[in-house]
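Quick start: what a row looks like.
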Amino acid sequence: MSSVLDYRHCPQCKFEQADFEFNCRTSEEYLQCRMCGYCEYVDRETDSEGKVSFKHRVIRGAGALLYRRKGAIGYCARYLATQEEVSEAAQWLSEKLAAGEVRPSSAYLSRWNKETPSVELVIGRLYEFSNYDPDDENPEPNGPNDLRPFQLIEMIRHLRVRYSCDHILDGRIVLLHEQPEPKFEQVFETALPCLSCLPKSLDEIGRLGQYQEFRQSRTELWEYRFPQAKDGRVMPAFNHPKTLQEAASLFYLAHPDRKRFFPDSESAFRHQLHGLPDKENVVTFFYAEPDGTRGIIAVSDFVLELFNGVEGFTPKLRKQGFTEVLKLDPQEIDAAKEKVSYAPGDWGGSWKNVYPWQRTSWQAKS
């Protein structure tokens, strides 16, 4: 199927950039105004005998809603036919903006005033489509399951960035867990103009006065536009936490309902941090004592399954030198912590395949 896209004058509000589409295969036409909500259609209909006819429909607009969700690429438009729909859209958009789910710079809601006649903006201001969206200056998670803002930077590498103004400049990219290093001489794409061209882009959308604000907030670091790092697009980097403790604090503040799954477990939190589902990473805790010290060991179900469950894993701990091994139920963890406090070892936390006292003399020398 092929279509011809163009702008037309809106018959209702006279807006010069109402969206027009002509379907070359079916000869259907669509006219939709994102200023006042006016819509006009020429629909193709075929009866039971295969006879083709065309039906012309006109919907007088009551208003229009345009928005772009956080982390999304495209824009959504809704053409409203009644004042009740406008009121409902006003409540919906206000809630989404307050929750931070919709980009504020491009979101707006209009109302058509038949008495005047004119367009009134209820929320926001008319967004003129441009190659530059100021909201792109701020990194956005790619949906609620994108946990990159809480992840630690594993390395920083050099890259080349092609800006929307076609200038290519050097930069640096942060790499997170299991993200690939940039290929040699690969040029990445960003939706942002370079700082030299930023004033022109801001002037085109009537926000030149905010140049210093955007200039000061422009980051020197980039990261992949999507978590999978499968395409060549980058965006400004998140303000990543510096330590695992800081990451855990931020993560559980944003997702308090998930903390109950893995209380005080570094291993379990790392599982969450890398996007593994809670239900697949339940952690079992063991109290243990080697050489007079005490501690609590956290073991994921994945590891337990390798040893055929608790029955197979307990002998493994004994072979590693732990003289007393007890599996802890959730209600026993606090009492175990109290017991550990009298003779804490420096080996507690996530289970390790090899502990310091297990090293051979050759390993110690190497």
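That is the whole record. The chain has three domains: 1-129, 139-236, 244-363. Confidence is low (pLDDT under 50) at residues 360-366.
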